[in-house]
Specification:
CATH class of the largest domain: Alpha Beta
Largest sheet: 6 strands, parallel
Number of helices: 9
Radius of gyration: 19 Å
Number of strands: 16
Helix content: 40-55%
């Protein structure tokens, strides 16, 4: 095994999401070295310079633009590279386009480093996590996506706003696909151990079902709303990337809804998000949260939707 520098990370892709993630990571103080890689080397150089100029206000760190050769000793490789969905373009068009991008990126990574953790951020994240695992040959516990970490943060924020409580005291998850078939696991949601419906009543909210439905729809449509207003989303996902990095670098054993490949009798060989223990070796184990029958059925349907997209994308 080649020497791995646990305080070194690499970001592949320096678009809005990659650059914002690099900025959030710089401020975190988690790493002492970060290499930025992009098909447009000049863009990567510009981002590295710009972010480096903030180092006098942060922790000592080496930030630079590089090539795939520079990732040989990185402990964590974050892949944000990929095309965005254009108006009139189908989801399948985007999937095929980004699978092609990954076919050029992932083998380059795997050729130089077999011991890192691969964190997939590019969309559609569940499909690309699956593709990255298959193309890299990495053990599945070391290839996972940001999944519904951001969706879950949006959910906690909106519930916190609704109940006027600190969103950090809200315990709730979005599971399944990071996308239109995602599910809010309402049956296990609580605020500091108090079931959500009880807490709502305590705060003077009695039309619980209607409010929760509106919040769930708002979470699902958040990205569309932001894209409509400012053309892209990147700060929220950058903070999500930083949060996952914290769990890995500090070996926190944090429970995060990351996207991993699942195997089972009803759902097999497809990546989607469930609460998962994350630490220095990647994903450790799934956390079996309580789901009611409708949520379980919706999760299976979500997984089948993703599996169908994978099958169609790899046809021909």
């Amino acid at each position: 095994m080649k020497h791995i520098n646990i305080r070194k990370t690499a970001i592949v892709g320096c678009g809005f999401v990659g650059a914002a993630s690099a900025f959030a990571i710089m401020q975190s103080g988690l790493f002492s070295e970060m290499v930025l890689i992009d098909a447009n080397k000049t863009k990567a150089e510009g981002e590295a310079l710009d972010i480096s100029h903030g180092l006098p206000f942060a922790k000592p760190m080496k930030i630079y633009a590089g090539t795939y050769d520079d990732i040989a000793d990185a402990s964590l490789i974050i892949v944000t590279a990929g095309a965005g969905q254009k108006p009139g373009e189908t989801r399948l068009d985007l999937v095929k386009k980004n699978i092609a991008v990954f076919k050029s990126i992932i083998p380059e990574i795997a050729q130089r480093n077999k011991d890192a953790i691969l964190l997939i951020v590019a969309n559609p994240v569940d499909i690309l996590t699956y593709v990255a695992a298959k193309l890299s040959g990495y053990p599945e516990n070391r290839v996972f996506g940001t999944g519904t970490v951001l969706d879950t943060a949006r959910l906690k924020y909106l519930i916190g706003e609704h109940l006027q409580v600190d969103p950090r005291t809200v315990h709730a998850f979005i599971i399944g696909e990071h996308g239109d078939s995602e599910i809010v696991a309402w049956s296990s949601a609580n605020v500091s151990g108090v079931p959500l419906s009880e807490f709502c009543q305590m705060r003077g909210h009695f039309d619980h079902e209607k409010a929760m439905q509106e919040i769930g729809e708002s979470v699902k449509n958040s990205a569309y709303e932001i894209i409509e207003k400012k053309n892209a989303t990147y700060y929220g996902i950058a903070m999500s990337v930083k949060r996952v990095c914290e769990a890995i670098v500090r070996d926190e054993k944090s429970i995060l809804p990351v996207s991993t490949i699942h195997h089972g009798s009803r759902i097999d060989d497809v990546a989607f998000s469930m609460p998962t223990i994350v630490g220095k070796n990647g994903v450790e184990t799934l956390v079996p949260i309580q789901l009611d029958g409708n949520e379980t059925d919706a999760l299976i349907k979500s997984a089948k939707t993703l599996r169908a997209v994978i099958d169609e994308a790899f046809e021909n």
